């Protein structure tokens, strides 16, 4: 029983940064903007979070710094693509390049220094309940934030007026504009929200997952988060499911190896990616469903005419 | 804004005038790294060696380096650039630089080249390597003494001879203490992915291992051991700061003494292309202070390290291969060629070598 | 509080088409000077080494060609995709597959020599890249699966496949167990153009030829028209009788084949064997190159050379001034942002609006250019 709980906890830790970054990107894409710079914003969050935690000695300040760093960095993308109407794909890729370089530059002094770890939740009486105690009441704070965030985004997008407006912008920015909606303002806020989420996800890496700073420590997780959004056909709860499936396959292959199952490790390592493609095909065979959710004006620049 | 610009331009102009001609007679030694020097692992250790050279030889040398150099055409260019920029002695620190370095060395016969972990040499190209397996034998013995379950978790990067050699040596050491000792092996297909290394460590602990060994570079696995109250070994650098209660010792690379001696030889005009494989006795392979273990285990580890430093090779027969066929007869010592191309397990390793 | 406002120009400004790269360059120089000065490095010598030195020596020009060739080759193919509004971002994987399939001949038939070897390898490389690109195309046309995601996922699969091959079945038995295939024999090596002067090989010529061919295709042929129409308005394209599915295949196969050609050229030209990693992200960088070149094949040649220059310059300042690799990358990122930002001026006029007093000062310099 204990091993099952441990495996579930490991999966949750692996899935949390993916989930947070993907939820943020989902909101961005729902507003019709495609930001491929998730990896860059995430690594900036990681270095900002670690740095602030290390310098102040408080991982909580680190957490806030990670969020702020991601948000500020995403602002660069927002100015470029929204105010200057540059191509979103190219700008996003450039943002990743810049983030990887800048974070390395900022983090030079943090290499080889142990950082502060955010403590796990510990509620007397509850955390010690067998089996479910540690799963429900004994995880790191960002895990709870990630779940709350998913629920909040779901509620916001589908139950509030503002959420409806946001989605309508993603579907057709020209008609939204014609209705007098401030398209650019909504998109600015979405992009910054996405940046804050990516920053938080990076903070999870450097404050919880592996409390340390090293260059390129995101190791491609930003790209996986991007994949998850499409994989989930822009539905928050499916992002949640996807992140956990991804985490399970990821952890599962490590367990399979430790168990001694003789499969080429490269094949095991490529399983998550192949699985994404297969599931994606299965989902998109149902055309009606995908069409309904895909933000129609995704990736297209919008300039209000006067 | 305009004023700021003007001020900026004038200062930069003034600065450029102030640049003095660099001393042309200084000896220039250069390094090429495959990773970022901020990896706190393999490339970091080589760069520490470079800094030791600067410290030890002071004014007599100047150094330069290129980091994050991809293996392939970029590597050719890196060596050519350094050779053309006046580097007299160039160290390539990754196996993948072998063929580029061979090519460039032929082109610049007056420049001295050294290549780590490869096997091709030339008139002006020497090779050097470190016998990390010596340290791994000691780790194996400590693991067998300290593990209650008799199972170690072993996180590895890629199935190359260096890594296979390490696993074998570790197992020989462990089995010399506990013949039934087992190791569970997980290949993470990366030298460096802290998250994945942490996940692998968790998976190994969950499956019953209670001690962790790694042939990857980050501190993540040790941090997991620390959280779980279990033990492990560091790699490349001393990681005690990250795991004060979990680290038993760390298998570290110290390239400084070697680099200093080679640059000094070049300064003296006595440099010749060599083929050296440095071990514990040369100070290139070091074990960080033994901590978190009883005194008798510590004494044993120190004794074994000394025995190896005095010339005993962990690959001394009788040793059988994994399938039981004999490899080394009693007292026979493995030759370096076989070790450098090692692609089989010894008896007792519980894994199938990826082929 | 200031606000930027874009005003669409009636037609693209020829003046800014020509001028914007220079404005971007000027801004980069200013920002870069500040950065270098803050780091305690003399900006002038940094710039001299970064921009001038790499193009003032013959051997470095060759290196520039080597570095730019795969970027240009991949980017011209992608430009067709992007023009057609088809998002192939998996060129990195197609590059790898091209290299693998093209290497079948030298790896399995090392005795096979002669003038036929190289053309066959290049052809197989193109087939390999195109076949791999056909997967996302098939999934898109058949199931409506989003190609951004599938093509990206297949990149990782391709890289791991190559890794498995060179560590396992294709490993050189004489290679001391190290992960690489045998060295290709001489017939399988792409010749250098001027062996005495530097290493540049035929890959660069392929890149130039591909750019010219795609330029002719896009500007002089019906197919190019079809690409543009379907890209800007799939509906209009359908009325004109153009098939969207056929276009998806065309764009993916073309870009895949070019990426595959880049892959096999890289392996047979500059490397000479397969190894676990053969590309420092050319497939992704090429996407940026495609946009820097404004999706115009000839612009892409220039953009590819400029981007290659930033890599070379980055290495030069690193070894000469001890400026870290990170700083060079940040500088490269700044340059990209300024170039992308300034290209906005081609299609738009920018007005700065103070919120308190709207309708004030349209930047006078920008006004005179229409």
Description:
The complex is a heterotrimer of chains A (306), B (355) and C (370). Chain A has one domain (2-293): ABC transporter involved in vitamin B12 uptake, BtuC. Helices cover 73% and strands 0% of the residues of chain A. Chain A has helices at residues 2-30, 38-56, 59-83, 88-106, 132-137, 141-159, 161-171, 173-178, 183-209, 221-231, 236-259, 265-285, 287-293. In chain A, helix 1 (2-30) crosses helix 6, helix 2 packs across helix 9 and helix 2 packs across helix 10. The model of chain A has no long low-confidence stretch (mean pLDDT 88). Chain B has two domains: 26-130, Response regulator (Rossmann fold), CATH 3.40.50; 133-252 and 286-340, Response regulator (Rossmann fold, 3-Layer(aba) Sandwich). Chain B has helices at residues 2-18, 42-57, 73-84, 98-107, 132-146, 161-177, 194-206, 220-228, 256-268, 295-309, 336-340, and strands spanning 27-32, 61-66, 89-92, 112-116, 125-130, 151-156, 182-187, 211-215, 231-236, 247-253, 275-278, 285-287, 319-320, 326-328. In chain B, the strands form three sheets. In chain B, strands 2-1-3-4-5-11 form a six-stranded parallel beta sheet, with helices on both faces. Chain B has a six-stranded mixed beta sheet with strand order 7-6-8-9-10-12, with helices on both faces. In chain B, helix 2 links the parallel strand 1 (27-32) and strand 2 (61-66). By secondary structure, chain C is mainly alpha-helical. Chain C has two domains: 1-41 and 323-370, no CATH class; 62-321, Orthogonal Bundle (ABC transporter involved in vitamin B12 uptake, BtuC), CATH 1.10.3470. Chain C has a two-stranded antiparallel sheet. In chain C, helix 6 (117-143) packs antiparallel against helix 11 (244-271). The radius of gyration of chain C is 23 Å and the shape is globular. Mean pLDDT of chain C is 86; it is low at 356-370. The chains are: A mainly alpha (306), B alpha/beta (355), C mainly alpha (370). Chains in contact: A-B, A-C, B-C.
């Amino acid at each position: 029983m204990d091993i099952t709980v441990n495996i579930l906890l490991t999966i949750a830790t692996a899935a949390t940064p993916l989930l947070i970054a993907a939820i943020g990107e989902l909101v961005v894409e729902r507003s019709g903007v495609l930001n491929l710079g998730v990896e860059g914003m995430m690594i900036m969050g990681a270095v900002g979070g670690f740095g602030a935690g290390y310098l102040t000695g408080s991982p909580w300040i680190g957490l806030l710094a990670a969020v702020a760093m991601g948000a500020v960095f995403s602002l660069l993308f927002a100015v470029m693509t929204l105010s200057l109407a540059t191509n979103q794909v190219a700008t996003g890729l450039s943002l990743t390049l810049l983030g990887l370089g800048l974070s390395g530059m900022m983090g030079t002094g943090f290499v080889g220094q142990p950082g502060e770890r955010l403590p796990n939740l510990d509620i007397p009486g509850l955390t010690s309940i067998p089996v479910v105690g540690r799963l429900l009441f004994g995880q790191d704070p960002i895990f709870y934030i990630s779940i709350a965030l998913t629920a909040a985004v779901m509620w916001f997008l589908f139950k509030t007026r503002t959420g409806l407006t946001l989605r309508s912008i993603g579907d057709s920015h020209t008609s939204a504009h014609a209705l007098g909606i401030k398209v650019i303002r909504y998109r600015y806020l979405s992009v910054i929200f996405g940046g804050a989420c990516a920053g938080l996800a990076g903070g999870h890496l450097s404050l919880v997952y592996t409390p340390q700073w090293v260059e390129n420590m995101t190791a491609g997780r930003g790209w996986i988060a991007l994949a998850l959004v499409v994989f989930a056909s822009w539905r928050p709860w499916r992002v949640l499911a996807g992140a956990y499936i991804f985490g399970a396959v990821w952890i599962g292959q490590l367990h399979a190896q430790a168990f001694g199952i003789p499969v080429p490790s490269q094949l095991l390592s490529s399983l998550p990616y192949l699985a994404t493609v297969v599931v994606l095909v299965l989902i998109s065979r149902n055309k009606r469903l995908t069409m309904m959710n895909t933000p129609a004006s995704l990736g297209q620049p919008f300039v209000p005419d006067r | 804004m305009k004023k700021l610009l003007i001020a900026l331009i004038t200062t930069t102009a003034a600065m450029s005038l102030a640049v003095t001609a660099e001393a042309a007679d200084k000896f220039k030694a250069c390094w090429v790294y495959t990773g970022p020097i901020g990896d706190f692992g393999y490339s970091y250790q080589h760069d520490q060696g470079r800094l030791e050279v600067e410290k030890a030889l002071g004014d007599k040398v100047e150094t330069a380096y290129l980091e994050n150099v991809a293996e392939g055409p970029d590597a050719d260019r890196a060596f050519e650039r350094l050779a053309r920029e006046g580097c007299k002695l160039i160290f390539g620190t990754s196996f993948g630089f072998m063929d580029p370095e061979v090519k460039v060395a032929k082109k610049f016969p007056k420049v001295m080249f050294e290549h780590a972990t490869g096997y091709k040499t030339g008139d002006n190209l020497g090779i050097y390597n470190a016998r990390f397996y010596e340290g791994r034998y000691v780790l194996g013995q400590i693991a067998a003494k300290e593990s209650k379950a008799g199972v170690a978790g072993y996180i590895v990067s890629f199935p190359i001879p260096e890594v296979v050699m390490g696993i074998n040596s570790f197992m020989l050491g462990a089995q010399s203490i506990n013949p039934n000792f087992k190791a569970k092996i997980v290949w993470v297909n990366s030298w460096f992915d802290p998250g994945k290394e942490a996940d692998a460590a968790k998976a190994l602990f969950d499956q019953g291992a209670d001690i962790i060994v790694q042939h990857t570079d980050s501190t993540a696995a040790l941090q997991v051991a620390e959280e779980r109250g279990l033990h492990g070994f560091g790699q490349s650098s001393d990681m005690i700061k990250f795991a004060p209660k979990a680290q038993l010792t760390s298998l570290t690379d110290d390239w400084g003494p070697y680099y200093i001696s080679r640059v000094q030889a070049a300064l003296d005009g006595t440099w010749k292309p060599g083929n050296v494989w440095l071990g514990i006795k040369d100070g290139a392979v070091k074990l960080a202070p033994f901590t978190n273990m009883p005194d008798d285990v510590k004494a044993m580890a120190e004794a074994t390290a000394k025995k190896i430093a005095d010339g005993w090779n962990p690959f001394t027969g009788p040793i059988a291969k994994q399938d039981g066929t004999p490899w080394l007869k009693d007292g026979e010592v493995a030759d370096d060629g076989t070790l450098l191309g090692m692609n089989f397990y010894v008896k007792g390793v519980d894994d199938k070598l990826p082929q | 509080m200031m606000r930027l406002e874009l005003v669409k120009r009636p037609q693209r400004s020829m003046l800014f088409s020509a001028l914007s790269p220079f404005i971007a360059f000027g801004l980069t120089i200013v920002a870069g000077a500040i950065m270098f000065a803050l780091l305690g490095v003399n900006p002038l010598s940094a710039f001299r080494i970064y921009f001038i030195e790499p193009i003032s020596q013959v051997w470095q020009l060759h290196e520039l060609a080597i570095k730019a060739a795969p970027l240009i080759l991949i980017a011209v193919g992608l430009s067709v995709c992007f023009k057609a509004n088809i998002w192939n971002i998996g060129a990195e994987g197609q590059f790898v597959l091209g290299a693998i399939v093209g290497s079948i001949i030298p790896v399995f038939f090392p005795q096979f020599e002669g003038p036929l070897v190289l053309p066959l390898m290049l052809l197989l490389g193109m087939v390999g890249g195109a076949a791999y690109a056909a997967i996302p195309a098939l999934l898109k046309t058949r199931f409506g699966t989003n190609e951004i995601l599938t093509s990206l996922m297949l990149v990782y699969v391709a890289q791991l496949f190559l890794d498995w091959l060179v560590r396992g079945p294709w490993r050189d038995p004489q290679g001391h167990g190290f992960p690489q295939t045998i060295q290709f024999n001489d017939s399988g090596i792409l010749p250098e153009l001027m062996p005495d002067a530097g290493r540049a090989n035929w890959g660069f010529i392929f890149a130039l030829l591909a750019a010219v061919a795609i330029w002719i295709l896009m500007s002089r042929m019906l197919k190019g028209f079809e690409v543009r129409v379907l890209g800007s308005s799939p509906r209009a394209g359908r009325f004109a009788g153009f098939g969207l599915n056929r276009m998806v295949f065309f764009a993916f196969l073309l870009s895949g084949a070019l990426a595959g050609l880049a892959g096999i050229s890289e392996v047979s030209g500059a490397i000479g064997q397969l190894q676990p990693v053969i590309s420092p992200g050319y497939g992704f960088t090429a996407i940026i190159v495609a946009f820097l070149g404004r999706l115009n094949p000839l612009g892409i040649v220039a953009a590819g050379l400029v981007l290659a220059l930033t890599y070379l310059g980055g290495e030069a300042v690193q070894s000469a001034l001890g400026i870290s690799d990170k700083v060079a990358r940040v500088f490269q990122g700044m340059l990209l942002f300024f170039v992308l930002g300034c290209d906005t001026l081609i299609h738009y006029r920018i007005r700065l609006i103070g919120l308190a007093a709207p309708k004030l000062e349209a930047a006078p310099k920008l006004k005179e250019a229409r």
